[in-house]
UniProtKB/TrEMBL annotation, chains A, B:
GO terms for cellular component: cytoplasm. Keywords: DNA replication, DNA-binding, Methyltransferase, S-adenosyl-L-methionine, Transferase. It comes from Parvibaculum lavamentivorans (strain DS-1 / DSM 13023 / NCIMB 13966). It catalyses: a 2'-deoxyadenosine in DNA + S-adenosyl-L-methionine = an N(6)-methyl-2'-deoxyadenosine in DNA + S-adenosyl-L-homocysteine + H(+). One of its GO terms (biological process) is DNA replication. Residues 268-364 form the RAMA domain. Pfam families: N6_N4_Mtase (PF01555), RAMA (PF18755). Belongs to the N(4)/N(6)-methyltransferase family. Its EC number is 2.1.1.-. GO terms for molecular function: DNA binding; N-methyltransferase activity; site-specific DNA-methyltransferase (adenine-specific) activity. InterPro entries: DNA_methylase_N4/N6, DNA_methylase_N6_adenine_CS, RAMA, RM_Methyltransferase, SAM-dependent_MTases_sf. This is Methyltransferase. Residues 32-254 form the DNA methylase N-4/N-6 domain.
Length: 367, 367
DNA sequence: TTCCGAATTGAATCTGTTG
DNA sequence: GCAACAGATTCAATTCGGA
């Protein structure tokens, strides 16, 4: 076990190689604001699975997902959660993600240890793997649990208005529709194979960190893998500590995070008060990486320019608000359809942001 | 405790008033096909919970009693689940619905008792109650767990094709979007207040029963409430046994169910899978003269050719065997469905031999 | 270069009957 | 109980290759 990467200064990025329990016990107590944990799911797969076209499904058969029994898994869970609890500030919170194989044990253990559940959140996958044999319902979601350190903890971070802004000025619900991690975001090893079997999408972490941390907070991920938590934390100006046992994952994570740029502080500010109404969640574009925080939008004639912030609000000179509100403001009008007014540059051409919305709609299928 | 309503004949509708554990223990073992359970999680409303030693549990909403209350709840859960397990047929299954307050304990207990999870299913509420104080995500879903009696249980009911038909010919996913129970469906008492605080929508039970029971099966609901399970079971031609402690809920349930009419048998038929159809050996086609010995079969691209022999085996170059074996062999695969792979020429066109099988099935159906 | 069809792939507790 | 074998079974998104 050893510290791999540590940077002093305004942004701490720490990756520790080793067992997560030992590593957490070596950290100062009550030192982190949020823990995001993606522990092994304890899948119990039978023989090989083939698709109808007889191709083979690449199973998660790694050693780190092998447990002898529920009892052994529960003990593992209690141990890492106790270590996590120690390093968590009293005002801190924890997120754990899992599937039906493990999430009920995870949830019960959280409660047993005194964590207090705020929500269970369902990640609905827009493109899950089908059930090839027609034996069950398509396993189309995973479950996240968000819990504070204790029941009597009244202070915790929840950026309610930022979530609302991200969701078209409707309260963010407990079910989130997001695609799984594929395409360019999916990290590959030298052979072109996936670098990690269970890489999570950045959009998921974006929402988690935006909702329950503030810029400058420290996020701990005890099952760091290829570093999605670190990548999004850096992008959003949060400090992070990642712990990972496998050197090969750390290597990938370091290179990945090296290339990430932190958004400018003014872009990372999130809405703290009510804003004008919007119809389509513009924030989804940022969450999904179609626009970066800090991206510049202009009108077709380039008379006005605005900067995009992480929660989907935009800034033009002194004014902050939705794409519609700011669009109306700069034109001196009462109303404006921001989707067609604001443009972004791609391939040297200005295009309305509405084409990005269409892209998202196409990807997400139903509303 | 007493039996309130029992009807002999083709459709059994039984409502039992009393404690669900005692009542289940009084039923014959291995007698029900499906259990649907909506257990209480608010221990105060659950009322009359007792510890194993029969001592009364007092108010459990104080922080100091959180751990004690989880233990008591787990004990309660183990007790009713064990009783449920006893009355369940070996081919039977159980559904349990809950929210984050109790579902993790319920799920872990199911696993501890040997039930085998098939899916966790998310009921997404299209019209959830908002979070008025803006302190959390809108609690917009509940979780259902579908589990069979044991891991090595190979036979269970899942009407895959019926679910697929219900979902526009796409596999039914594990997330279901349904409205909460309101309007005319919501039962009221004499004062116009809701008769039961957590009445479930019939649409939810409709999907559960259609997916995992057949007409004529017996469904048990140990927390019957105002009888949604019974109402839908009757509508769909399933027998049911409902157990409920409170007389006032039973009264409402009886009147409700009395008004329900069972659908006509032909309307209750659902789309079935090919697996359920009669098996036709390939040799039958030759026997019946639909293919002559010596007939030539090819794949759609005409890359491979095989000759049919009198006993239903086929020959391709040196290899002899079943249509499936040879189909797999020539493609270099482990398996192949010979019915759809091999084609024969008729009217100058290539057609899969599967249409001949369909012809035989149609003829057998008439006979 | 662009467009269209084919191929690939993702945290999966993934068959049933006969001999 | 195990081996052999029949034969049923997939959605969304991206990438690749040929026209």
């Amino acid at each position: 076990m050893g510290r791999v990467n540590s940077k002093a200064g305004q942004s701490a990025e720490i990756i520790i190689q080793g067992d997560c329990i030992e590593a957490m016990n070596a950290l100062p107590e009550k030192s982190v604001d949020l823990i995001f944990a993606d522990p092994p799911y304890n899948l119990q797969l039978g023989g090989g699975l083939t698709r109808p076209d007889q191709s083979k499904v690449d199973a998660v058969d790694d050693d780190w997902d092998k447990f002898a029994s529920f009892q052994v898994y529960d003990e593992f869970t209690r141990n890492w959660m106790n270590a996590a609890r120690r390093v968590l500030k009293d005002t801190g919170a924890i997120w754990v993600i899992g599937s039906y194989h493990n999430i009920f044990r995870v949830g019960a253990t959280l409660q047993d240890l005194g964590f207090w559940m705020m929500n269970d959140v369902v990640w609905r996958k827009s493109n899950p793997m089908p059930n090839f044999r027609g034996t069950r319902f398509t396993n189309a979601h995973e479950t996240l649990i968000w819990a504070t350190k204790s029941a009597d903890q009244k202070k915790y971070t929840f950026n309610y208005d930022a979530m609302k802004a991200l969701n078209d000025d409707l309260q963010m619900r407990s079910d989130w529709l997001l695609p799984i991690c594929t395409g360019g975001e999916r990290l590959k090893d030298g052979d072109g194979d996936k670098a990690h079997p269970t890489q999570k999408p950045e959009a998921l972490l974006h929402r988690v960190l935006l909702a329950t941390t503030n810029a400058g907070d420290t996020v701990l991920d005890p099952f760091f893998g290829t570093g999605t938590t670190g990548a999004v934390a850096k992008k959003l100006g949060r400090n992070f500590v990642g712990i990972e046992r496998e050197e090969r994952y750390i290597k990938v994570a370091r290179e990945r995070i090296r290339l990430i740029k932190t958004g400018a502080p003014e872009d990372l500010k999130v809405t703290t008060s009510k804003k004008a109404e919007v119809r389509i969640p513009f924030g989804t574009l940022i969450e999904r990486g179609l626009l970066e925080p800090g991206a510049v939008l202009t009108d077709p004639a380039k008379r006005h320019a605005a900067r995009v912030r992480a929660d989907g609000s935009i800034v033009c000179r002194d004014a902050t608000g939705s794409i519609h509100k700011i669009g109306a403001h700069v034109q001196g009008l009462d109303a404006c359809n921001g989707w067609t007014f604001w443009h972004f540059k791609t391939d040297g051409k200005l295009k309305p942001i509405d084409i990005l919305r269409q892209k998202v709609r196409a990807e997400m299928g139903e509303a």
